[in-house]
Amino acid sequence: MTIYYSLTFLLLAAEMATFCILVAPLPYTVKKRLFAFLSESKIVAKIAYALKISFIFVAILFVDALQRMFRVTAESDMAKSSKHGAVQDIRTDTGIAARKFYAQRNTYLTGFCLFLSLVLTRTFYIILDLIHTQEEYAKLKKQTTGATGATGDQSKEIASLKKQLEEAKNKTRDYDILKKQAAQNNAEYDRLATELNDLSGKKSNKRVD
Hints:
This protein is about 90% helix and about 0% strand.
């Protein structure tokens, strides 16, 4: 394996390890700090930029390996058709099979590297959006809880005011009853006083006679 395909294999292994870390069931706080570091760190941004450039070269290698695989496959088919019914050369067939195998290996290696880069990028942004959504949900839930608590305090205050109003109404009703009773007592007192005065006047007149 040449050096650039070896580097491609190392890049593919790094992508697989990174993907396993991203989808691992980590605690929410750990995952939040990890993704905040990956999305805000300048060092990670520079590494991501370098990886984008390297993926351009991987794409070129993929196109080259794909063309080579098609060419080797065509040569293998031509060799099989030309040697149909003749004595086969084992060395030639082995060389063609080896070239075909290497071409297919390089094609799959670079193709999976490019495919996993797309999957890794999309997975990263999906999880990042999920974390932001969970943060917004937590904020809204906290605000809703605070509003519910404030509503509960207002309900208690309203109930207290209603109770005080009912007590004031009861006191007013009792005052009206006492006022009415006092008026009746005063009228009765006036009546009795008038009758007493009348009786006293009659007695005085009798004595004078």
